[in-house]
Amino acid sequence: MLKPGTRYRSQVCTTEVIVVRPADITLHCGGHPVVELGADADPTLTLDPTAATGSLVGKRYTDGSGTLEVLVTKAGPGALGDGSALLVVKDAKPLPSSD
Amino acid sequence: MGVMSGIRVVELATWGFVPSAGVALADWGAQVIKVEHPGHGDPMRGLVPSSLKAAGPDAVSFMFQTFSRGKQSVGLDLKDPGARDALLRLVSTADVFLTNYLPGVRAKLGIDVDDLRAVNPDLVYVRGSGLGPAGEEADSGGFDLASYWSRGGLAHASTQPGDAWPPSLPGSAFGDLQAGLYAAGGVAAALLERERTGVARVVDVSLLGAAAWCTAPHIAASSLYDLDMMPMRQHPDASNPITNTYRTADDRFVALVMLESDRFWAPLMTLAGREDLATDPRFATAEARATHSTVCVAALDALFAERPLAAWTELLAQQQGVWAVVQSPREVSTDPQVVANGYVQDLQITPATSMKVVSTPTQFDGEQPAPTPAPELGADTEVLLLEAGLEWDDIIALKDRGAIT
């Protein structure tokens, strides 16, 4: 169960996140479940090439339902997923202006 | 360790001027926390400058990167009391507060000097404005094209005879960048005083004041000689023909600045293979060259037009007078002196995108700090608000009513 306000890390890359809004999913990164920051990673695991599109620092990611919100606090090559699909970026909307 | 390591700055500012001060402070080692509107952020994020529209999945808002690199971002809607309280918590731990918000807005939001000094009496409070904090127009906003370039006298000073209209600003946010560094300098002085006496000041910088500063010679001359500005001699009748700019055979330009011209005239002409000009009595002394300036400049026009730039740079390097090529900004970014001094650096924004940024032009012990990207909107809200003592439930409540991002 993902705890909001808790930080997690990828077991197979440098990605770190904070869970903003939880959902009933198992958060993955790079194809494997994440662990709490400070917990040990399983050293036998490796980055799954089908989940290697990267996580960008400062971006918020969500699942298909839009319930989950996870904020990347440290970037990494692994892609975030919910166990069945990769997460997508929640976009901010800048005001248009020109000079 | 930068000169301002350990200094915390809260920036509540938009566009170019005050944010560029934040970039300088970040380059100098300060932690700069940029407070933005939680929905759309700093409007600079969405600016399309000179019709250069960012597109594609890795679109780079190069203006926002230029003006907010190296900072953290917190999204707060200050009209919400909970979000305003979060700002006050951040400010209570800060050394410096930067803002370009107008006096009326600051009063309405309750974030003016007295409001913030109530939670932090040691806060250095910096106000960037268009027209200064005093006078009848102190409540008016300004942009650099209006307050700095036009009202500030620079457009007038840059207009050449025959121009149909005054020239544009030499670049986007040109005046903002000058005034921003003046504000950063003010912060450094105010922090120094605070260290020594404990007193924290209000620092004011305006675009209009910055413009007047750089036209100080014109203003002095206008007061002594009943003139609008110092007379600027044009190319054809430069009174010192070797302090002038010339066109080469390949339509490039070389600027000569040989102030003590008697030292440099004959050697330069000899080097260029023109003994006739070196010994021509009309051009033999500075006074003679001034008397015959039109003819002298015309002779130099013809001379410079005979060779391409590459030949002139090789030739001029062999004499002692000061000269320079008129370069494009792109050429500046790869100029060997610029590279050797680290004035322009590469900024890696994402693994796939990078752009060039200009280092703050004040170095300490010859160091240039490596640049880091501008933050995503609200990237640091959760982390900084937790650190400021908010509980997670408070954070979620603020999010649920759209008060923070």
Write the layout of secondary structure elements.
The complex is a heterodimer of chains A (99) and B (405).
Chain A: E1 7-9, E2 16-21, E3 28-29, E4 32-33, E5 35-36, E6 60-62, E7 69-74, E8 80-81, E9 88-90, E10 97-98
Antiparallel strand pairs in A: 1-2, 1-5, 2-7, 3-4, 3-8, 6-7, 6-9
Chain B: E1 8-12, H1 17-27, E2 31-36, E3 47-48, H2 62-68, E4 72-75, H3 81-92, E5 96-99, H4 103-109, H5 113-119, E6 124-129, H6 144-150, H7 154-158, H8 174-197, E7 202-206, H9 207-214, H10 216-225, E8 243-247, E9 253-257, H11 261-271, H12 275-279, H13 286-291, H14 293-304, H15 309-316, E10 322-325, H16 329-334, H17 336-341, E11 344-350, E12 353-358, H18 381-387, H19 392-400
Parallel strand pairs in B: 1-2, 1-5, 2-4, 5-6, 6-7
Antiparallel strand pairs in B: 8-9, 9-10, 11-12
Helix pairs in contact in B: 1-8, 6-9, 8-9
Keywords (chain B): Transferase
GO molecular function (chain B): transferase activity
Pfam families (chain B): CoA_transf_3
Descriptive keywords:
heterodimer, A: mainly beta, six-stranded antiparallel sheet, three-stranded antiparallel sheet, globular, B: 405 residues, alpha/beta, Rossmann fold, CoA-transferase_III (chain B), CoA transferase (chain B), transferase (chain B)
